[in-house]
Design a protein that fits this description.
CATH architecture of one domain in chain B: Sandwich
Oligomer: heterodimer
CATH class of one domain in chain B: Mainly Beta
Largest sheet of chain A: 3 strands, antiparallel
Structural class of chain B: alpha+beta
Shape of chain A: elongated
Distance between the termini of chain A: 131 Å
Order of helices and strands of chain A: HHEEHEEEHHEHEHHEEEEHE
Helix content of chain B: 10-25%
Number of strands of chain B: 41
Strand content of chain B: 35-45%
CATH topology of one domain in chain B: Jelly Rolls
Structural class of chain A: alpha+beta
Largest sheet of chain B: 13 strands, antiparallel
Number of helices of chain A: 9
Number of helices of chain B: 5
């Protein structure tokens, strides 16, 4: 009887052990699954984070091309855009200007990027449905514009029941330096070219030494301006900052028109006008003064430039005005 | 204690079996724990890999500007201000894909080593940017990040360029008309002097003077007396293409059409063509279609066209024995605004006549002006009485009371029409009933005495310039004989129906004209694309050219129909439209190309732009070598390559 009893005990123990083993295995499997799920969740979250970051980068690349295309359109037609911000947005989204495809945007629209990302998601074992919409373009400061858009993504894991459905506003900045200023060709029969380049001398002008001011003139560097047309205004052929682009800070631009250079291009020159580009091109009627030590055709007005200072104050030449 | 029964054996066996199973099972437990331990370790590594990736995609160049390589690059100016906001991963990618692999490796190593003491590597597209030299382990965690703008073997950014013509040496065709004009009754000749200027600095390639005259008597006895081109007698060089002799009783006259090449006689600047011919039994005059067509090269600067225009149409100097007349045609564009026009007439040696009627002497009309109408716009007398022939068999019973030099300035604005306008001036011309006694002159010398010359001056504004900057106008004139005409080519016919093609590149037509060449003529009706474009306002009012509104032309096939009609409306049986009529149109093409595709170098981009420009303008017959080109390239147009995957492995 004792043998039977012990056999039963052993049987019971074995059953218990088997149960424990199975429980252990089950737990391990569960933990493994959980870990895998966590891994996939992390992966999907990382992919989304990567997506957001790359969308900024992609939209920045696309926007620079869109800006180039918009400038190209203005220069080739000789007519400013109606709404520069909307045109850039259209180029970013569709690669078109008023429905017509632009060569520069070939294979470089956000749709192209979305297609590539969706293909990349498949490699990562996700089904992705991504869209970019509601693109808006606004000035950020004198030398950059802000491109904001809505990124909408649905990511589904192909093996697990994991889905990420998210939309968020994303923005990126586009630096306008190194692009061509459309205002110059528009007002010079397409002959004069000026590239947006920040002055390295901004607010560093000596009344004794005019080297920096001369350098700004010779290289037609750009300075921030309160009233001079911003980049978007210039795309519309406007000389002054329009209310629709005003964001409560100085977003305008101004450069010195090199009148001697215009002469060599066979363009009529108006020596009496201020050399500040928007004043010169649009003949803003203000007194403009000759500055001692500067070329005789150089004129500077005493209107507000930026930072609540007048041009004579900014460039530190009040004492050099030739009356 | 011995084994005295089988129960003890069974128990021992059970225990052994049980223990064996237990040991076996227990031996399995550490294995699962080991696996779980490995998983936990992997998770930790994974967290670390992801954290590192986050750091690489969050930290900016500015944040890491103290690491040796980045600091050095900033000092050398390789990394500039705008690069400082780039993320570290972006910076590494930029250098790696630009081929600066060692720089990318150094940055990776320096940034990584400052962040973690784990073993790691950074890879992209199956290439290792940097791997920390340490032994490999079985457990490796990876984190990925996609980055657009990079692709193996592809440049990150490139150049775009545009080009524009600053000057274009183009072949242009200028048509210098001789208006229907004349006089000269019964063998007295008419003398016509045309003075005109061609632009200076041109090279004349071709110059053909088409001569269309009505002279007498028979075609074999033509009184075609003189044709001097800048003083060179050319009358015997005229190649007569068409001679139509008509007789009415004793009157025998001939309508003649011919041409002469005057290329060698014409010069840039001022030119003079003098023509004299007579008609013994009738009236000697120029018929529609007499014109000089000059083809020359013109160095054209690029300018924006104006919106405001003032054009002068000078009369030719016409000296007619027994009267002089001229019919100047000009056009007002279809969308012109604020149109004004004045006629200045400088008449010389005009007989001043009067007639005795109603018991008193009344001033008779000797000067008449018609503007787009069969009713006189101006006449100097109050009657045109003339009942019976007297002197010289044709002169009516007027008395010549003197000679006058009428100088008129008439505002003809109210009589203008948009389109073709016809102004006729008659001095001592009284239809077919009688003519003046001696010479009368419509004076004109535009080159030496423009202000005292006779002319029509038209001013108008256009809502927008006909062409903008960066565009160039191209002019083409094609003889009907070279068009697809219903009647056999080079035949005279009435009506004349022709079709012509406007190509896609010619779609921006800014001006177009039909130049009518006729022998005898009465009234003309012109249809373009089935629309009535012009109808003569009165008999014999057939202008030299008819303005065709560009808006009724379209790309593809277009048609012109010219028909000469009698005042009653019937088609003239002996008045033909000659195949030397022509269709002239001016269209605009771009003389600049905008930014094109992105290239790896500025030179490639500029060359592409110049080539595109030359092809564009070259299509219109402008020699590519004659274009002065300027260009501009822009750098920094990034490619939307990829996205490329960057992988951080940690172990």
């Amino acid at each position: 009887m004792k043998g039977v009893f012990f056999s039963l005990i052993i049987f019971f123990l074995i059953s218990l052990l088997i149960a424990i083993v199975f429980m252990q295995r089950s737990y391990v499997r569960y933990a493994y699954t959980q870990a895998t799920l966590e891994g996939r969740v992390t992966a999907i979250k990382n992919f989304y984070a990567s997506l957001v970051e790359d969308s900024k980068r992609a939209v920045a690349i696309v926007s620079r091309r869109a800006v180039s295309a918009a400038i190209s359109h203005v220069i080739s037609t000789g007519v400013g855009l109606q709404e520069a911000n909307r045109t850039i947005a259209e180029l970013v989204l569709n690669g078109t200007i008023e429905g017509e495809k632009h060569a520069l945007m070939e294979g470089s629209t956000v749709k192209d990027w979305v297609n590539k990302i969706e293909a990349l998601a498949l490699i990562e074992n996700f089904d992705a449905n991504i869209s970019i919409s509601e693109v808006t373009v606004v000035p950020e400061d004198s030398f950059s514009i802000k491109v904001e858009f809505k990124l909408y993504a649905i990511l589904r894991d192909k093996n697990f029941n994991i889905m990420l459905n998210k939309s968020q506003q994303v923005y990126t900045y586009v630096d306008i330096t190194s692009f061509e200023d459309p205002l110059y060709p528009l007002y010079t029969y397409g002959r004069a070219v000026n590239i947006f380049a920040k002055s390295p001398h901004w607010l560093n002008y000596s009344s004794e030494d005019l080297t920096n001011l001369l350098d700004d003139l010779n290289k037609s560097y750009y300075h921030p301006s309160r009233y001079g047309a911003s980049f978007l205004d210039r795309l519309e052929g406007k000389c002054l900052v329009q209310n629709k682009y005003n964001i409560g800070k100085d977003i305008g631009l101004e450069s010195f028109v090199d009148k001697q250079k215009l002469l060599t291009l066979g363009i009529p020159v108006y020596p009496e006008r201020s050399s500040i580009d928007y004043m010169y091109f649009c003949n803003v009627s203000v007194p403009a003064y000759q500055i001692s030590g500067m070329p005789s055709s150089f004129r500077l007005d005493n209107q507000t430039g930026a930072l609540d200072m007048t041009h004579l104050q900014i460039y530190n030449v009040s004492s050099r005005v030739v009356q | 204690m011995g084994l005295k029964s089988g129960k003890g054996f069974v128990f021992s066996t059970d225990v052994l079996i049980g223990l064996s199973i237990a040991l076996l099972l227990l031996s399995m437990i550490p294995l699962t724990f080991e696996k779980r331990y490995a998983e936990t370790s992997l998770q930790l590594l994974s967290y670390e890999a992801n954290d590192l990736m986050n750091v690489f995609t969050t930290l900016t160049v500015a944040d890491m500007s103290n690491t040796p390589t980045i600091k050095n690059l900033i000092e050398k100016g390789v990394i500039q201000g705008k690069d400082l906001n780039k993320t570290i991963l972006d910076l590494i990618g930029s250098f790696w894909y630009a081929g600066n692999e060692s720089v990318a490796q150094n940055i990776t190593k320096e940034v990584f080593n400052g962040l973690s003491n784990k073993c790691f590597s950074l890879e992209t597209e199956n290439e290792t940017i940097y791997e920390k030299p340490c032994p490999k382990k079985d457990t490796v965690a990876v984190a990925f990040r996609s980055l657009s703008g990079y692709e193996m073997g592809k440049p990150i950014s490139g150049h775009i360029a545009r080009a524009w013509a600053t000057k274009v040496l183009k072949n242009t065709t200028e048509i210098i008309p001789f208006y229907p004009e004349g006089s000269g009754w019964t063998a007295d000749r008419v003398e016509i002097t045309k003075k005109f200027s061609l632009p200076t600095g041109i090279t004349i390639y071709d110059a053909v003077l088409y001569v269309s005259v009505h002279f007498g008597t028979s075609k074999t006895q033509a009184e075609f007396q003189n044709l001097f081109v800048n003083g060179v007698q050319k009358k015997n060089d005229v190649v007569w293409l068409y001679l139509q002799e008509e007789s009415s009783g004793s009157e025998v006259t001939t309508a003649a059409y011919g041409y002469i090449n005057v290329k060698n006689e014409l010069v840039a600047g001022s030119n003079t063509i003098y023509l004299a011919f007579g008609s013994p039994n009738y009236n000697a005059h120029v018929h529609p279609g007499m014109r000089l067509i000059v083809t020359y090269s013109l160095l054209q600067d690029m300018f924006t066209a104006n919106r405001s225009f003032t054009k002068r149409y000078y009369f030719d100097d016409v000296v007619g024995r027994t009267g002089a007349w001229s019919m100047v045609s000009f056009y007002v564009p279809e969308n012109a605004m604020n149109v004004t026009a004045k006629l200045k007439l400088n008449g010389k040696n005009v007989d001043d006549t009067r007639v005795y009627t109603g018991g008193r002497w009344r001033n008779s009309t000797d000067v008449k002006v018609y503007v787009n109408s069969g009713t006189a716009f101006y006449q100097d007398g109050d009657n045109e009485y003339c009942y019976s022939y007297s002197d010289r068999g044709y002169y009516c019973n007027r008395n010549i009371v003197g000679e006058m030099n009428p100088m008129l300035e008439l505002d003809i604005t109210n009589a203008l029409v948009n389109g073709t306008n016809v102004v006729s001036v008659y001095l001592n011309c009284y239809g077919d009933t009688h003519w003046g006694d001696s010479t009368a002159e419509i004076y004109s010398d535009p080159t030496s005495d423009p202000e005292n010359s006779s002319y029509i001056e038209v001013s108008y504004e256009l809502p927008e310039p006909p062409f903008y900057y960066g565009e160039i106008d191209i002019n083409k004139d094609v003889l009907f004989g070279n068009l697809d005409c219903w009647r056999p080519l080079w035949n005279a016919s009435n009506p004349k129906n022709c079709t012509f093609n406007i190509s896609e590149s010619e779609k921006k037509v800014v001006e177009s004209f039909v130049h009518i060449a006729q022998g005898f003529s009465s009234m003309i009706k012109a249809y373009v694309n089935s629309r009535l474009t012009f109808v003569s306002p009165s008999t014999r009012a057939v202008p030299e050219s008819i303005y065709v509104k560009p808006s009724i032309l379209s790309v593809g096939r277009n048609n012109i129909s010219l028909v000469d009609v009698q005042p009653g409306g019937s088609i003239s049986s002996t008045n033909y439209i000659l195949p030397w009529s022509s269709f002239e149109h001016t269209y605009i093409v771009k003389s600049m190309v905008d930014y094109g595709h992105v290239f790896n170098t500025s030179e490639e981009a500029v060359n592409d732009a110049i080539e595109r420009l030359k092809q564009q303008i070259g299509k219109e017959g402008i020699n590519a070598t004659d274009i002065q080109v300027d260009s501009k390239s822009i750098y920094g147009i990034e490619w939307l390559w990829g996205p490329s995957m960057f992988k951080i492995s940690v172990w």
